[in-house]
């Protein structure tokens, strides 16, 4: 199991201009020149391409060129410049490294406005790679993951030690969720019976399920093309 790192800026905004402006001060001149060139190449050949598309090659280079601390954001910007659709994102995810898969997950709120990319989220949640799990519970999952799968995603974070603070829109989705409360209670009872401590994050989420709690203000939710996103219905 890998250990989660601090969430990159890609998990906090769906505005490419903001991502770029926040990233470039941290890049040395050669890295910034490489990124600008990579974005120009991606913009010049957008859409679905073959396995040797230039922008896909640049995704593989991002860690070496920009540094691993900034590679996620660089890759998301390249995917956005290429206007990668669901098919292209699926190809990058299936063929890419764990780092490239993580970037695909972070890019979903920017590039996919419906539930078509949920199989990628579901695949990431089946892994024990905590950085993939953390990337999978971002704004895209908050909008589109059905209630039963979202509840299991919350439990997955608790099982693997991914901080629940990184689960997008947690307060709103957990509010008054009696089934989530039951699942959390069962998990806490199992841990107690096994002589194991109950993580503080579990109690935090359990408190959020209280139906008498004050609903949080809903954040501004902008979809991949600058319009208000559409949230998937819960079941």
Explain this structure.
By secondary structure, this protein is mainly α. It has a domain at 9-136. Helices cover 60% and strands 0% of the residues. The protein has 13 helices and no strands. It has helices spanning 16-23, 29-44, 54-66, 68-81, 86-95, 98-111, 118-125, 130-136, 139-144, 147-160, 170-174, 178-193, 200-208. α2 runs parallel beside α4, α6 (98-111) runs parallel beside α8 and α12 runs antiparallel to α13. It is elongated, with a radius of gyration of 18 Å. The model is unreliable at 1-7 and 221-235 (pLDDT under 50).
Structural class: mainly alpha
The sequence of SSEs as H and E is: HHHHHHHHHHHHH
Separation, N- and C-terminal Cα atoms: 31 Å
Total of DSSP H or I helical runs spanning 4+ residues? 13
Number of strands: 0
Global Rg? 18 Å
Mean pLDDT: 87
The helix content, as a percent range, equals 55-70%
Q: Flag low-confidence runs.
A: 1-7, 221-235
Main β sheet profile: none
> How would you sum up the global shape?
elongated
Beta-strand proportion: under 5%
Biased composition (Basic and acidic residues): 219-235
Region (Disordered): 209-235
Protein name: EboA domain-containing protein
